[in-house]
């Protein structure tokens, strides 16, 4: 009897995790929509689902991704420093 109970609890836990993940994804889309509505010049609603964007990032080699992120940070830092002065 205990074996069935463990399986049942695992199944419920898996279902809960799926629902939780789905709610989290919905939240991402809602945040993107609100940002787009409030600041349309800066924020754009994604043209593709977030999952597809992640797949495209995975196609880019890790080293190249790191370089891109470093450049973006350098640009952000220079803009921040210009505003600070």
Which helices and strands occur, and which strands form pairs?
Blueprint: H1 2-38, H2 50-59, H3 62-84
Give a written overview of the molecule.
With about 80 residues, the protein is mainly alpha-helical. The chain has a domain at about 1-45. The protein has three helices and no strands. The chain has helices at about 1-40, 50-60, 60-85. The longest helix has about 35 residues, at about 1-40. It is elongated, with a radius of gyration of 21 Å. The termini are far apart. The model has no long low-confidence stretch (mean pLDDT about 80).
Task: Tell me briefly what this model is.
The chain is an all-alpha fold and 85 residues long.
Feature tags:
85 residues, mainly alpha, 3 helices, 82% helix, elongated
Helix fraction, binned, reads over 70%
Alpha plus pi helix count: 3
What's the SSE pattern? Answer: HHH
Low-confidence stretches: none
Structural class: mainly alpha
Tell me the β content: under 5%
Mind telling me the C-alpha Rg?
21 Å
Number of strands: 0
* Biggest sheet details: none
**How would you describe the shape?**
elongated
Q: Would you tell me the overall average pLDDT? A: 79
**Distance from first to last alpha carbon:** 71 Å
